[in-house]
Amino acid sequence: MPKLSSATLLLCVSMPALADEVRVAVAANFLDAITTLSEQFERQSGHTVLISSGSTGKLYAQIKNGAPFDVFLAADEARPALLEHEAAIVPGSRFTYALGTLVLWSPDRGLIDAEQSVLNNGDFRFLAIANPATAPYGRAAQEVLTGMGLWERFSKKMVRGENIGQTYQYVYSRNADLGFVAKSQVFSQGQFADGSWWEVPADRYAPIVQQAVQLRDTPAATALLDYLRSPAGLAVIQAYGYGTDAAQ
């Protein structure tokens, strides 16, 4: 049996000790992106990423109640700023990792046109939005509909997802005819998913500035957030339809 050198033995002993877990609380809109990012990060670093997804409001409440997350990827800047104000994060760790985009989407190719006739005519059974009270994309959808004078008109036709992930599922399963979702849910590698869509102009709603904070000072958590800001990480984020100018 060949003998291992002392350097090889040291490497074999050290590598498992260096690998660690990163527990990430991530807003539902960013789930697909963080899944891809985590796979790449795990291969590069040897760390393991454990993902919990939900609405930003509910994840914030879990963190306040002691949930053992290491990193929080929110869909807004308000909750990360609150955690920073409450001295509940690693100092200096708050940053913008993505700029979100709201899209009206339907799996029906002929439903949504450039003039948004389906909204103006109200010719649909159900419209899905995320809960504006807990989900930033839901709040943005409410702004858009209010600006169009349609919020009250469609109140009885709305189905509200607990988060943007559930909202997308309502539309994808055709329990709702159309819905306001995150662009990242219906866009990847430069192409929209099958169906029809309207990418809502940015001036129709307040910017969806998605910020990250580090909750525990561990090398693995630091490494993951560094990876999100690296050229490789930003390329993945952009590929899912997010803006990243403010993240660089």
Largest sheet: 5 strands, mixed
Estimate nothing, just give the exact number of structural domains: 2
**For this structure, what is the CATH homologous superfamily of the largest domain?**
Periplasmic binding protein-like II
Low-pLDDT runs of 5+ residues are: 4-17
Q: Helicity range of the residues?
A: 25-40%
Count of alpha/pi helices? 10
The SSE order reads HEHEHEHEEHEHEHEHEEEEHH
Mean pLDDT: 92
Q: How many runs of DSSP E, i.e. beta strands?
A: 12
Question: How widely separated are the two ends?
Answer: 52 Å
SSE class: alpha/beta
CATH domain class name of the largest domain = Alpha Beta
How would you portray this structure in words?
This protein has 248 residues and is α/β, with parallel strands linked by helices. It has helices spanning 6-18, 31-45, 56-64, 78-85, 117-121, 136-147, 164-172, 183-186, 219-228, 231-239, and strands at 21-27, 48-54, 71-73, 95-100, 102-106, 127-130, 158-161, 178-182, 187-188, 191-192, 196-199, 208-214. The chain folds into two domains: 6-99 and 207-247, Periplasmic binding protein-like II (D-Maltodextrin-Binding Protein, domain 2), CATH 3.40.190.10; 102-199, Periplasmic binding protein-like II (D-Maltodextrin-Binding Protein, domain 2). It has ten helices and twelve strands. The strands form three sheets. Strands 2-1-3-12-4 form a five-stranded mixed sheet, sandwiched between helices. A five-stranded mixed sheet has the order 7-6-8-5-11. A two-stranded antiparallel sheet has the order 9-10. Strand 6 (127-130), helix 6 (136-147) and strand 7 (158-161) form a beta-alpha-beta unit. Helix 2 crosses helix 9 (219-228). The N and C termini lie far apart (52 Å). The relative contact order is 0.21. The model is unreliable at 4-17 (pLDDT under 50).
